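Lab meeting, action items carried over

1. Structure of the two-component assembly. Owner: GW. Status: complete.
Input record:
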Amino acid sequence: MAAGDAARSPGEGELVVVGPSKAVAQEGELVYPGDRITFGATAPPLVMLGAGVLREEGHVIASKAGILRFDAAERRLSVEADQRRYVPALGEHVVGVVVEKLSEEYRVDLGCSSPAALPVLAFDGATRRNRPNLHVGSLVFARVVLAHKDMEPELSCAAPVGVMSKDWMTGQSLFGELKGGTTFRCSLAHARSLAADDRPGGELLALIGEHVPFEVAVGANGRVWLNAGTVAQLVAIQTVVSRAMDAPAEQRARIVADALARR
Amino acid sequence: MQRPTHEIVSLSERAFLLGALAEGLRGDGRGVLDMRPVHIRLGPSSGAAEATLGDTRALARVSAELVEPFADRPTEGSFAMSVELSPMASGAFEPGRPSPEAIALSRVVERAIVKSNAIDLEALCVLPAKHVWAVRCDVTVVDHCGNLLDVCALAAAAALRHFRRPYVRVLHSEQGEATSVEVCAADVEEPEHLALRHMPLALSFALIAEDGFSTPLALLDGSEREEAIASGSLSVVLNQQGELCALHKSGGVPVGAEQIRECVQAAQLKFRALAKALDEVLNEAKKSLASSAPPSARTGEAATRQPPSR
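Predicted assembly:
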């Protein structure tokens, strides 16, 4: 950071990092653990704390080294780093496997340190009598509604505020059981880039869609669910995604075309 | 040995993998007898090696120390293996004491090397009944994506063939009796390779037995997902001469003699590529060692002392 930047006063609502490593940093820049993150002069009060940030003594600080991100639509603040171990963060969409079925909740494996709880009624339109019946081994797409470092994470399949809620019976709800298809694992960074259309790597799913129709659910926990018409198509899509993610951006279209043109 | 080493497999994924196998496809696009890409890296110091098979990765480290031999075998050194499954490798591995899986892995690799007499234990004797070399090989699995046995055996083989122990000079008394030994530093005397008669490598098959299959389907180099749905595994340990050094089958699924023979034959065909990859890396290391070795008075002599490494 140049000295001039440190002297510059932050604009309204602008994200500012005050910390040992930097005077002022903006969204998309590198932060280090311990850096304090604040908003500019007129601070918008409400933000969601995503991965890699935590609140300590009234300040928001970065808990790991990575790129600072602020999702303006969801008002979520997070620090992104390349890792494979998932640490649940509020509001993230995840793909999990039911490992245990209890009377009040399902226990779901997300690949994090402890299984997450999914209450049996946490589906839109679910009642005691009429609710989805998941089995051990079922896949679910859900969002994290409780993430605390000392507590078990909690999930919900109900639509969040701002998303039209559809009854789970219709099979058209955003979250819920994922039937058929398959999953594969990737690093958290890869999962993030697959899910974001405006980031490098985000165009990959669209490229594949030009050749083969398929369904996809990308979990922030590095699990990606795919479904397509035939098993052969699924195998091809899965292989091409893992191969193309590591390839330079300009080669992706060719890799996808080569692998899927025959399907 | 199979289940607890894997993360849970969803019902959809199991159905997908089995459905794909019914069409002759594997989940990652390989054929039934295709291995994942092999990569071996040696160094930086002697006896350190890293082997990868696809995304499965293991590090091996060979070390040797001078110890007193067992009283009943005064002229034999010893060899021991240990495998550590690091929690970094998979969420299914716990830190702490070695798990039964880790112990089973190290036993299979150790037995394959020791029982096939790959290491000349008598050549590890320096002074009978007094000083012998105790060689040990520590393997750490750092990334678990299936088929740990083959990767551990490959890393161990690479490290053992790369390892050079210090040269030891035996000091004699005036009467000509050997009295004590002196371990020479690498810049004084050229270190020596281990005396290896051959070096076995493992090739494993994941055995998938489902209602639809008449005999279990043997998949070479099973991925982590395939192993998680497998009913057992069959490991074939071979050496460069194509000889069978060990056969290890785990899991309760019955396998007929005919199928075992087919697996061994398939493994013999695939073995060549694996052994070639290892030989190339070792030759490369030998060349760079020869070019970078500091000129020493005894270098020429040391080179002739080296046992022929086969």
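2. GW to write a short summary for the group page. Key points so far: Chain B has one domain: 11-293. Helices of chain B lie at 11-22, 100-115, 148-162, 224-229, 257-292, 299-305.
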